[in-house]
Amino acid sequence: MTPSLIDTPVLSRRGLLQFSLGASVFLVTVGLGASLSGCRPSRSASGLVALRDNDLAFLRAVIPVMLDGSVVAEKLPGAAEATLQSLDTALAHLSLPMLKLTHQLFDVLTLGITRGPLTGIWGTWENASADDIRKFLDRWENSSLDLLRQGHSSLLQMIMMAWYSRAEAWAHCRYPGPPKI
Fold it and tell me: So where does this one cross the membrane (predicted)?
C-alpha cells in the first residue's frame, strides 16, 4: 500500500531544522553585510523630510514606470519629481513605526544583497530598464509569498496616492477637484 499525501509529512523535523539553520545563516549574513557596508539609518536627503538618499535612486527608477499611461510622455519627468515630493510629504506625516516599516521596505529594495534575489534587478536601479522594473513589479504582485505581495501593494498605494493627490493628476481621470466651499 502506498502512503497518501496526508500520511507523509511535507516537512520533517530534520528538514525544518535545516531550513531554520539556513534562514538564520542568511539573515546573519545580510545583517553583517549591511553593517560592514555602512548601511545604517541615514538622515533625510537634502530638501526632503522623510526620504533618504539611498531611497531616491529606487524611487526615481520606479515612479516613472508606475505612472506610465497616466501622464503624457513629455511631462513624465516633472510628474515623477512632483510625485516624489508628495510621497515625502505623506511619509513625513506617518507614525514613527509606520515610517520605520516603510524605510525597511526601501532598505530591502536598495541593499544589493537583497535587491538581486528579491527583485531580479542585479545591477543598480539607475541602470534598470523600464521593462526590468515592470517584471519586478509583476513578480511581486503575483508572488506566492504574501510578504512580497504586501510589499507590491504598499509601493503601489504609496506612489499612486502621492501622484493622485496632486492637482495636475486630476485632469487625466477627469476629476474636477474637491468642491469649493
Answer: 15-36
> Angle CA(39)–CA(43)–CA(44) in degrees, nearest 5?
120
Residue 149, classified by CB atoms within 10 Å of its CB into exposed (0-12), middle (13-18) or buried (19+), is middle
Do the beta carbons of residue 121 and residue 115 sit within 8 Å? Answer: yes
Give the CA diameter of the chain: 78
Q: What is the DSSP letter of 125?
A: G
Cα–Cα separations (whole angstroms), residue 140 to 8, 65, 83, 137, 150: 31, 15, 22, 5, 8
Q: What residue segments make up the domains of the chain, in order of their start?
A: 53-170
Decide if 127 contacts 56 (C-beta within 8 A). Answer: no
Sign of the four-CA dihedral 170, 60, 157, 70 = positive
Q: What is the pLDDT of residues 139-161, one digit of tens each?
A: 999 999 999 999 999 999 999 99
- Which helix (H) or strand (E) covers residue 36, if one does? helix 13-36
Rounded to the nearest 10 degrees, the angle between the axes of helix 112-119 and helix 13-36 is: 130
Q: Which residues in 108-181 belong to E strands, given as ranges?
A: none
Which uninterrupted H or E stretch holds 64?
helix 53-67
The pLDDT-based confidence of 173 (bands split at 50, 70, 90) is: confident
> Are the C-beta atoms of residues 163 and 70 closer than 8 Å to each other?
yes
